[in-house]
Fold each of these.
Amino acid sequence: MEQKNTLTEPVKYDLSFAREIYSLENGYYIKQCMQCGMCAVACSTREIMDYSPRQLFNLIKLGKKEEVLSANTFWYCTSCCTCKARCPRGVPLVDVMHDLKKYAIEQGYDQYPQAAFYKAFWAEVAGRGKVFEGGVTARYYLIRGLDEVKKALAMKDVGMNMLKHKRLPLLPPKKVRGLGDLKKIIHKAQELQRKEARA
Amino acid sequence: MKYCFYPGCSMEATAQANLKSIKAVAEALGMHLEEIPDWNCCGATVVSSVVGDFTQQVMAARNLAIAESMGLDVVVGCSSCYLSLAITNKRFKEDEHFRAVANEALAAGGLKYEGSLRVRQFLEVVINDAGLEKVAQMVKRPLDGLKVAGYVGCQTVRAIPYEFDDPEYPVFMDRLIEALGAAATEFPMKARCCGSSNALAATDIVVDSSRKIFASAAEGGAQVIATPCPMCQMNLDAYQQRVNQLHGTNYYIPVLFFTQLMAIAFDLSTDAWALDYCIVSPYNVLAPFTGGK
């Protein structure tokens, strides 16, 4: 009799993507996930995510690189730490999400507006040692382009209220005096981080 | 009582009301806050997504290294700075390998951190070091009858769960509100997320998250919301009108730092009350307590 709904070949998993993700700073914790779904019910933005963290971890294990890196899951994570505090297996989900954001940016999957915000924020810190909202905003719109500026104009009442209540200084704070040393520290940290990742 | 104080970037800009009220309240409680000289950004929950956890933590540790040379524990007001500095500090204390490698990086700037300090949230310091009895004694303008929703937010109690309060059902804020003579309202959403740093990139997330928090606060009958977190304060204050426009609601709940309520109750200067910084005006609802100034 002809067999239906059965595979003639065993399913082959491509583990290379999973291995790459496991090698990220907090990536190895993903292996501890037992697919219970506590993160999904804890998540404050689950409703608008393509995949819950649980589903995302499963896709990683299955080697679904494109699905994982195109997902909005980690970009919509607000780092509220509810899942991290509740995970029965002690997976620091927030830190894993940060790793995934970094990895996605490196792989060119930076189409989400949050990626532009993160880059703008880092550019401020790297150049000044502190964050200046005006600088972050300007850099963000430079990355995102004109369309986004139009969206911003719809929000101008929020900005005007902030200005009116002295909440948006127009001038940046003074640069950190030890900025030169801070840059040396960051440079060395990056070097060591790469070395540790290979170890 | 002497401490190192880490203000963080937002206290110089969007959250000046937090800085003014914290400084005044601390002084009134006999705490001396010594600002960490030449502190730098902690990286919040943003920088690690660009440069990695390790680099962010080393960057945050520059502040701890400077504080360690002063020999004083670090007090932080901002929840996101607290999370970043407290987690970094914990790693320095517990992970020997990390400490060695991180110190190799710090050495490039002539610094070293042994991990000898505690990193503490100002809310926790007020309750554990000054104590609620002292707080109650300091009250000159009791906030009698004021219904306050104590919005703890997410990172204050979940940066390091059980470090000082329950991550699921925090109570410190409510006890403090009560010590000021006010009533802490039922507020099931008191530790839910406000949408965090998405205001610029994904405003919808902030609007939608905040909407749920307003609904919960309103259901408990809150007249004001009090929070320790600059991010929560800004999202709930600056986007409240937007929530009303988009969802046809009619919320009018002023959002203050808990330290502003303390400054009023302690009858400190109006500069410490810093009420002008509030976008949703608190003047009417606080009128019974602010008279004569």
Note: Chain B touches chain A through 66 residues (CB under 8 Å).
Amino acid sequence: MITRRDFIRDGVAAFTVSFAAPAFLSDLALAQGVRGRNLVVVYLSGGNDALSTVIPYQDPFYYSRRPAIAIPAGQVLQIGSDRTGKTLGLHPRMTGLRDIFNEGRLAVIQRTGYTNSSRSHFQGLDIYGTADPNAPTGVGWLGRYLDTLPSPVDALAGWNATRETPRALISRLVSVPAIPDARTYSLSSPNSGAEALNERTAATRIASHVSVNRPHLSFVNGSIKGALDTLDRVGTVNTYAPSVAYPNNGFALALRTVAGSMVRGIGTKVYWVQTGGFDTHAGQGNAGGGSYANLMGTFSDGLSAFYTDLRNQGLLNDTLVLQFSEFGRRISENGSQGTDHGAAGVMMAMGGGVRGGIYGTAASLDPNAANPTLENAGNDVRYETDFRAVYSRILDGWLGANSVSLLGGDFRQGAPAII
Amino acid sequence: MPRENWPVEHVLRRGGFGPSAADLARFATVSPAAVVDHLVNYERQADDVDAKIGNADYVGVVQSGGAFSPNTNIDHARQRWLFRMAHSERPLQEKMALFWHNHFATAYSKIAGVYGAVQATKMMALKSGELPGPQGQIELFRQFALGNFRNLLVEVAKDPAMVVWLDGRTNVRARPQENFGREIMELFTFGVGNYTEADVYAAARVFTGWNLRLATAGGRNDDPNTYYEFFYNAAQHDPTEKTFTFPVSSSGSRTIPARAAADGMQDGIDLITALATHPETARRLARKLWNFFVSELEAPDPAFVEAVATEYLRGNTEMKPLVRFILQSRWFTHPDRWFGRYSWPAEFVIRSIREVGWTGFSIDSVRTPLTNMGQTLFEPPDVNGWELGLGWFSTGAMLARMNFAASLASNQRFNVARAVGGVRSSPDTLLDWFLLEKLTPAAFEFAPYRELQSYARAGIAQWTGSDAQVNAKVAGLVRLIVGAAEYQFI
């Protein structure tokens, strides 16, 4: 009978690798472009009401269809007009982003989306994640990008500032760490002092063992090593002293952490940051207040602090921020001063390399069923720019990747020239 | 007494949440087949686990904001379920409830967004009789843990949480809502490749009118006595015939006939019966059960899939004989299958608590770690459930597992040291006690075993076996073993 003792000591083929992990990894990070270009994806969770972000303030139907929540024309932050001459303004709480727009570093891409939006949060987010409206499961578009990086990919090539890994960052080869707060991305020990050090040394050595016969064990050991190897580098971000004061909310603090990791030269290529509360079925409010004004305050103030910090640190030209949401909302307000799930939304890009301005054309909000800029019997905004065209521009023009292979098709046609 | 009844430990890890010390003593000389019988015939064991909540002999619960209210407070509901996993005499019932929770993945937050926290918790977790209203979804899964799959599917289609989750409440005759109609085919039964978009639309029409209603007129949603119940709204049912690309009646017909709206619920019963008894549903369930009970390291053996699918159809979609068949099959019992499944976070924390100890430990303290490990109970990421297997092991999630091992080790240091008793003649003896008796990791190969030995010996000039030396080492050993890759498999 095989006893547990035999089992433990039954020397199956195995070997142990050891290497000076931190030095190796920092070399790797350097090779993969520390202080190189990075992409920060900002996800507005819940379905952002694009018509309250970028407001067609001279469209009479905007007011007739939104009597309770429309922003008065005199209060919008004017940003000019699109190529059809439609005048547009940002929400009054977006003064920070208006200033960046005026500096020519904010691109607003109107009416982004895809055909047959499910109007489901989960499916919508998954579709923006896989970049395939027909296959909302599997690896994500950014995960596929990470998979193209030369192996071995640095454990911090991707940085997810939310707890659950979004579909977009799911990859075949790279395990993107979830680091919502660098201060809690740390290793606990039941011990202290030398005992804790001995324990961490043992944990590292145990995880360095590669089991030839049990690759699944080696996979988990890879995650353990990935965590142990990144702890110290993530830890350096905790001491980051930003050049500006960030607002005190989760979104701004995540952006502050992202800026810290850039300044520390961690070498991350892709960051994911999100802020929620955009499922505004009720109590959306108008210029005077309400939930939407708060959402825009969080969004704009956070990005504005981030932008200024990066500019002060000389990192603005290395950084591209891409904002999206899973769908836009209904044009007509509902009975509870909110809006229900709709179709096309707005995307924005911000950064030192961005060609600022207004891209795409605004919808006419005339509820006539024949209105070609609307869908669903005039209830929702129809998309004009495929969101994958925006992705393709970023993959090709910013990350130096091949969008055709990563997106499974050529979406370069009609891609807005935001960079 | 070293643990040597390996086949039984394997059954208890897969069919439950791992053996406690008491289980090992109890089952020391019992055959695996008898243990399978014990697990499968769980109705023979008392259903008294909830009565143990609050008893100091068991893991603790934390009552934030007043009384422990697992029917109306979702954090308390999570604690109750975790407590049941830790201490139920019917572990397979809780294990299957977890399986169904992933299979019919429903998230609390969407329901809370519509009806508020009190009603949403009731819809997820109300225990029958404790407050007015139908039992919550997790109680349904416990009731049907090893019940009839077709009947479970009927109950799920009428489950208020599901009706909210997959938007059945907005599925009306004039504008059929496809969400549930799609998922019942894509995820709950035979899977993609077996239906068309036209089938989705027809299925949506089948379930028009399957709605819910406020049963307590005028009741406020934050009132625990208020409740919602399933309601078949005949006026919103599409009574015309529906045609599918697969048979929907035992006669082989692919058409559900036009029916008077008052009889229209039969449409749904017909479709559910057809889906539940479809051979591809049988195979898909067999594959899921392979991954859950047999192995995630090997693809489902086609012979297993055919055998289980046949058994399922012959048994009229009854789960109990099916799971018994699996747990007694050569596929399950073969030693190659031991430690062949990646533990889910809930399984990992409960197993480690059952092995390390729980006196003075609160189950509430696992909620945040579980979230960091990627498994918030009642909050699966989407209707597809969790990303199983490798999906559990991101760096952040593994860090959370290691940190949980550290906090449990820290909390239980003195209990464990006491349990060591006289087995302390050398650091190696102490280490072997953990590996041979206290904990049940998969085998450590020689090199990592030597690293554990090095840790046990480190920093001690002269081993005397004093309490101070034992106290100093036990927590680190628990942390290292429970936080090692070897412990993440069941």
Note: The longest strand of chain A covers residues 106-113.
